Amino acid sequence: MKIKGTEEPVAIIGFSVNPEIIAEFPRISEREKENLNRLECQLGGTSANVASALAKLGMKTVLFALTGHNNDFHTHCLHFVIENPPPNISIVNFPILEKGHMGFVPIDGIKETPQVFGYKGKIQQEKIADCLKIIRNEEREVWRIATGVRPPEVELVKALFGEHHGFRYLNPRKELILEKEILIDLLRQTDILVLNQKEFDLCKKFDICLGYNDLNSMVNMQNEFAISLVVVTNGEDGGKFSLSTKVATIRDKYKAFPATVGKKVFTTGAGDWFAGALIYTFVKAGKSILEITEAEISDAMCLATKVAGKKITMRGAGNGPSESDL
Asked: What is the mean predicted confidence (pLDDT) over 279-291?
């Protein structure tokens, strides 16, 4: 890929971006009002987390962010974050939502077990045409990453993947997997597919893997849709991957990889940081995904699990390690 060693971005990422408000509080007392330990607003969302991982590892990225059409509270918070983006991240704003996305993380100062509450705004389809033109005109040879994809975002993802040079990375949500025909259409444009175990099991249930058993269904998915790499993650149990070769022969079984788990668990965003580290390794290698060997994939998995394992010791979905932290 031409981007290695230049100031060009290595990835364009969309479309799950939102402000993430973190509110850390002491254990609830009998007092009517209690002071917060910490309150901050930062960049959040699945796509933003992947961008943050790449950026922290030293790679430049562009984020395509869907925001509210009106200046509601959700959109106001995101604009605040957009005006002060993290280093190495550029943000392109598409104001096509009825109300902006929002993530809220209340953190009990004693238990340290945050749960994320969120809101996803509805896309106004009549406003999407101009966004599609902008996305289609982005012709740089970069990674094209669509994460947390839901059915309403499919037209945006198709435009992002398109016929451009580069490699296409897809991470679908459960809602998209349930729309079998829509997902299958996207899979035909996908080079790397990443799912967690539950999502992969759902693919099997809906016969997207054509009913093969667990050992062979990843391979069959590759054969059917010409996907170069399928990765299935499974939390503390690690996961597995299946890699096709540049001569289009398919491995007859998958390779497993172990997990690296930190001591404290703040799991929100761990899978996104895994994804960012995985792509970082491929970009750093400077190879086509069709040229990457099984050994190099294994090394990439090891780094990705280290990043995810370190990330879960760090509070906040957009907060994670640099390579020197590992």
From this structure: 83
Using a CB cutoff of 8 Å and minimum separation of 24, what contacts does 247-254 make? 250/219, 250/222, 250/223, 251/219, 251/294, 252/216, 252/219, 253/215, 253/216, 253/219, 254/215, 254/218, 254/219
- Rounded Cα–Cα distance for residues 17 and 23 (Å): 19
> DSSP string of 114-152?
---EEE-PPB-GGGHHHHHHHHHT---SEEEEEEEE-GG
CATH code where residue 267 lies: 3.40.1190.20
State the pTM of this model: 0.85
Residue 111 lies in a domain: yes
Reported as a pLDDT band with limits 50, 70 and 90, residue 115 is: confident
| Domain contains 105 | yes
Task: Give residue 62's domain range.
Answer: 11-27+36-319
Is 164 a member of any domain? yes
In the structure encoding, which two tokens stand for residue 173, read together? 């949500």
When divided into structural domains, the chain yields a total of 1
